Amino acid sequence: MAIRQTPEGPIWRKRTGLASVALWCGWLALVLLFVVAWEAMTRNQIWAFVWDAPEQAADLIDRMVPPRWSYMDQLWAPLWDTINIATLGTLMAILLAVPVAFMAARNTTPSVLFVRPVAIFIIVASRSVNALIWALLLVAILGPGLLAGIIAIALRSIGFIGKLLYEAIEEIDPRQVEAVRATGAGPAQVLDFGIVPQIMPAFAGITLFRWDINIRESTVLGLVGAGGIGLQLKASVDGLAWPQVTLIFIVILATVILSEWVSARVRAALT
């Protein structure tokens, strides 16, 4: 806000002249960026396919309906594999992310200059690579199967759990930690009675939220050979079995909704 003095009295303005010019320049730069990005995105676009898209979509939907309900018997095992991938991957991530979080938090790290940057790098590296890419790399290393999917989910989840958990550790009340330490407690007892009780609600919520996300991510890992219901989806798409694809979509949607409901109920019970 700016004030300009005039003979009639002060005039209040929302912005100074320089701030207004800077704002308009910012909007202009944003518009130019959009134009450049749009031109790069559509440079090799064949617009005939775009105009034909509604007709093709209608034809595909016509072939996908009704779902092939008899195919459900072949989806129970892959669906169970998908849930196991998400659950075991989340548990593995917890085992790895908790010590990383304590090393990343400023108030618990052994060394702010060395250990903390290493822990932050692990968190950033984990969050920077999508689970599908982790799975693609692990399938090439370990071969196709559930193990690649479990490790892919774990590697992706370390960054998520570690980041939120170390932020929760840094936000604890230091007075409770000092009170425990004043009784003569050792480092392990300070951790057990001063830090852990304060972060447990956040830890439970973070874990359940990540498990819910992992249910979604594990449904597509089979597209690269990492097991689960994604294998059936890829096989059905490759075989042009569109009624089966519809059924798989319905099963995935129902599974995600159920996991969301379970996660919400458990979080509500813990708070």
Write the layout of secondary structure elements.
Elements (H helix, E strand, L loop, with lengths): L1 E5 L2 E5 L3 H26 L4 H18 L11 H29 L10 H14 L2 H12 L3 H25 L3 H9 L4 H32 L10 H10 L3 H29 L1
Antiparallel strand pairs: 1-2
State the main characteristics:
271 residues; mainly alpha; MetI-like fold; 2 domains; two-stranded antiparallel ribbon; 75% helix; globular
Task: Give a description of the structure.
- The protein has 271 residues and is mainly alpha-helical.
- It folds into two domains: 31 residues, no CATH class; 194 residues, MetI-like (MetI-like fold, Orthogonal Bundle).
- It contains ten helices and two strands, in the order ββαααααααααα.
- It has a two-stranded antiparallel sheet with strand order 1-2.
- Strand 1 and strand 2 form a beta hairpin.
- Helix 4 packs across helix 6.
- The chain is globular.
